[in-house]
Structure formats: C-alpha cells, structure tokens
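Example 4.3 (complexes with small molecules)
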Amino acid sequence: MRSREELVEHLKRVGIRDEKVLRAFLRVPREEFVPEHLKKYAYADDALPIGFGQTISQPYTIACMLEMLRLEEGLKVLEVGTGSGYTAALTYEITRSPVYTVERLPELAERARKTLQRLGYTEIHVFIGDGSVGLPEHAPYDRIIFHAALPSVPPPVVEQLTEGGILVAPIGSLHYQDLVAYKKRGGAVVEVERREGFVFVPVVGEYGFRHY
Ligand code: SAH
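Answer. The structure with S-adenosyl-L-homocysteine bound is encoded below.
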C-alpha cells in the first residue's frame, strides 16, 4: 500500500467498521512518525522499528484498539506508551480534546513531542515516566489505552478512570496477549470485549513485567 487511502481500504477489508477510526487514519500522515529510511513502508500494514527496541504499532492493531475504546468527540484520553506519537495523533483526530500520553523512554518521548509539535498537535501532552501507575496529576480520564502488554490491570489506573469509562489493554504473558476492553462500573472494571491473539512489547514498570 502506498497511500493513506489504500491503507484505509485495506483496513475496511480486514474488518474495521468504525467510521470515526477510518477517518482518523485518512487524516494522520504515518510517514511523519517513522524513521527516514522506512518512509517507503509507511502505509504497509506492519509494525516498524522506531529505535530503542520499540516499534510503531501495526495499523490494523491500532484500529482494533481504537474501535474497542469507543472514542467520541469531547472525551479525555490517557495513553500509555507514546512510542512515535502516531496513535496519540489518531486519537486526537477523533476526540478533538486534550490527549495525555506517557512514555518511559525519554528519547522517544522527546522525538514524539517534536513530531507532534511540527504537525500542529498542540493538545497532545507527552509525559516521561512509568505509565503503569497511570498519570494521577491529570486524572480522571474517560478512556485509557495501553500500547504495551500488561499481566493484569493496574489498580491505580482503575482509580483514574471515570465511572462508565473504558480501558483497553493487551493482557497476557510476555509473548502473547488478548486485547481486552473493560468498563468501569461501581468502582471496579468488568470485561466487555476481547479480541484474541496479539503480541505487544511489554510494559516495563511497577505494574508491568518487572523482570523483563
Ligand atoms: N502506539 C505507539 C507504539 C507504542 S510501542 C505508536 O504508534 O508509535 C509501546 C511503547 O510503550 C514503547 O515506546 C515503550 O517504551 C513504552 N512503554 C513500555 N513500558 C512503559 C511504561 N511503564 N510507561 C510508559 N511507556 C512504556
């Protein structure tokens, strides 16, 4: 695939239905978020290396997550695992509201900040730190999304989710996870949707895979 339009046609063919998500993929230039020498692959439906052992996620995977998150205009979102900043940009294109995103690796956070600034995404706020504990200073959030694998949902993150809010995360072992969507009801989260069979890099942190 060589263009955003072709990528979106592909995403429709492989089952992505949410029009808001598809429209966001048409708006965000993925080539701006990948290293120079990989720009020619920017619209392939593949994860690509972005340095420091990390990747920009596969478009299909991101589309699944954003669909499961049931995003709407006006919602306040926390993202853990900024990576390149691409998913934060897609999120903002749907919510048009401040997006808070946390990245553990300062070099990646700094690069994502610069890319997002260059593209005019002034309402996406990049923080450096361990997002496995959430980001209490700007809580609560209507939606929380994890882009790296977790063994289970971290309790502090549940606290930072609004009642009725949705959290999506890859849950499982180091080498295999399901994408799970949870809804907060009566102060606790309950599973509402599950899509099986994904592989993410691990969350490294207090509630992640500590010994990775
Ligand atoms: N969605 C991103 C890709 C994210 S890859 C994109 O589209 O580019 C997952 C990211 O999670 C990596 O950059 C990794 O450094 C980060 N990460 C891992 N553990 C973390 C933690 N505890 N807090 C914040 N970020 C973390």
